[in-house]
Amino acid sequence: MIAPGGAAGDAIEVEYFTDPLCCWSWAFEPVWRTLRMRYGSALSRRSVLGGMIESWTTFRDPLNDVGRPVQLAPLWHMAGRTTGVPIDPAIWHSDPPASSYPASVAVKAAALQGMEAGDRYLFLVREAVMIRRLNVARRDVLLRLGAELAAAIPDAFDPRRFGEDLAGDAAAGAFTADLRRTRFLGIGRFPTIIVHGPAGSRIAVGYRPADVMERMIDAARRGDRDDAPAKLDADAEE
């Protein structure tokens, strides 16, 4: 069992291991939003960016038979069809991102301006690549998304600072720490959710619907029975 992260009372800690290019994490967004709304301030959360694709010269996913960008398109199509979440896989044919690392560093750069900024920027990055077919490995695209976020929350996000932080040591260091945490725990598939609570810790590997996640959280929080079934598609997650 993974040691709890200092939870007390009814408080729960959630470590959410994800990646900007993970289609199953995009499908998990509505679930993640539901959980945050239901548990409110009782849920202490942290998004950990796991570095799914450093480069296509090193990336291999033998489980899904993926070793080239175009081979991700069928997986994205399946994730959308299975969960009902809109996903356009055409990016993998037209302008495939070379890596998920630049977008991950950008999320960390946004998060230097607060959790809300980090959360909203991660959503924008996912939406950009999954629906808008924007190559989020490109700096100009990442800066454009920063400008969009600044327009949405002008009092909470400074695009000029974001541009500076995108090239700075703090964001890169935060992402490196996430990679270290991911590798230390041996996490290789996303999303992975680890819940720490007074009644112990629970882990879910892969996409799960909201009701399953709620039972898992309540089991860690109050010791409720957790009858979580096998993940939606054991071979689907990235």
Give the CA-based shape. globular
How many strand units? Answer: 4
Distance between the termini: 23 Å
How large, in whole angstroms, is the Cα Rg? 17 Å
Enter the CATH topology name: Glutaredoxin
| Individual helix count | 9
Account of the 3D structure:
The chain has a four-stranded mixed beta sheet with strand order 2-1-3-4, with helices on both faces. It has a single domain (12-222), classed as Glutaredoxin (3-Layer(aba) Sandwich). Helix 4 (101-111) crosses helix 8. The protein starts with 11 loop residues before the first strand and ends in a 16-residue tail after the last helix. It is globular and about 45 Å long. A hairpin with a 2-residue loop joins strand 3 (192-197) and strand 4 (200-205). The protein is an alpha+beta fold. The protein is 47% helix and 11% strand.
Helix-strand blueprint:
Elements: E1 12-18, H1 23-39, E2 43-49, H2 72-83, H3 91-94, H4 101-111, H5 115-130, H6 139-152, H7 159-166, H8 169-184, E3 192-197, E4 200-205, H9 210-222
Parallel strand pairs: 1-2
Antiparallel strand pairs: 1-3, 3-4
Helix pairs in contact: 4-5, 4-7, 4-8, 5-6
Q: What is the gist of this entry?
A:
With 238 residues, the chain is of the alpha+beta class. The chain is built from nine helices and four strands; from the N terminus they run βαβαααααααββα.
